[in-house]
Design goal:
- By secondary structure, the chain is an alpha+beta fold.
- It has helices at 12-21, 73-78, 104-118, 121-125, and strands spanning 28-32, 35-39, 43-53, 56-66, 82-83, 94-97.
- It has a six-stranded antiparallel sheet.
- β3 and β4 form a beta hairpin.
- It is globular, with a radius of gyration of 14 Å.
Amino acid sequence: MAHPLMFDSDDPLLARVRSIALALPGAGEKSSHGRPAFFTQKVFCYFGGSVRADGEWVPHDAAVMVRPDPEDEPALRQDVRFWIPAYLGPSGWLGIDLDDSTDWQEIAELIDASYRVTAPHRLIADL
């Protein structure tokens, strides 16, 4: 059974994430579990996510989830802006909310790092 879509395809924040993610070599977009997912052979970025808190699902609809560079992950986990997403957190994924004060250079760097963690070497070489 397909998941219901949990995003607005015209969301301006999604448009910014999409432009960053799809500029990377070999990147594509698909819907995964009702959310936009950006991938090569593996997903490197999701738009939106959720956490499980006190038995309830807490949505983070305006957010990105990424796999950080392993060297940066400990510091990012200490940053209060980042949260551990449901299901993906144990695999090293982190989420960060997006809003009007988002530092888009930082988001681009996080997406780039996640791409480099997940993409095939031949695509990374194209960077």
